[in-house]
Amino acid sequence: MLVPVIAGPTGVGKTALAAAVAGQAAVEIVSADSRQVYRGLEIGTAAPSRGERAGVSYHGVGFVDPRERYSAGRFAREAAGWIALVAERGATPLVVGGTGLYLRALFDGLFLEPDLDDARRRRLGAWLGGLPRGELARWAGRLDRAFRGGGAQRGQRAVEVALLTGRPISALQEERPPEPRGIRPWYAVLTLERGLLRERIAVRARAMLEAGWIEEVRSALAAGVPADAPGLSAVGYREIVAHIAGRIGAARLEEAIIAATRRYAKRQETWFRHQLRGPVVRLDAAAEPEALARALLAAYRAAAD
After folding, report:
1. CATH architecture assigned to 2-110+179-304
2. pTM, whole model, 2 decimals?
């Protein structure tokens, strides 16, 4: 099955385009966003609004406790199930998201990770969670020479597997190739001139803060979610946690969030230029979502025929 995928950096307009596609075709949306999975964190993850979700079925949004680690492997298993169910209902599954590792796990597969002792993993995770990001990356690089970065969660996973199995994750991946899932991606990657994307990111960050992003984080902390929980480790959430703890002043908070988000978007752009495996159509996100949706559907239907 050829599955359409809307991909691109944060802030580029993936959610708006998905809603426009849903208004023009019978689709159900599968989120491939590693932060939108968390429950109670809708503002800072830019989860689809009630209006955007009206009349459209979404899968993979707001169903995981922020204290829980949600892996790419688990996403791939569950997303494959959602895709199969959507197809059985006669609709088209539309995958939407900017988490490259999730897309790779879903369409290319991941190796079967060996069982890891839960108690040792928790103790190791507590130590790794206290490391600065640069130090975590250095540990991952020492333990696995094939490690090429990719964020705190990926670095932590590389260290965990290496220390708890005695083998680097890259060696295990070579020995245990993934099984094919029977689905193939068709990528529509949204692009935007760098200055326009930077401005969209700034406007969205301000809007999120005005919508109550800080209060959202305070509520999560008050409900017992630890400051270093997986759900609060995303860009923006880290800065707000630091603000609440007194490490970032109110005058600097918005600027810090915007800067961190722009750096993250740049890494995503690099990933989507070089790492996608499958047919790719690039769309200029400066166009209106309805026009982009028509172009996407026409190109996808031509590819699927």
Report:
1. 3-Layer(aba) Sandwich (3.40)
2. 0.83
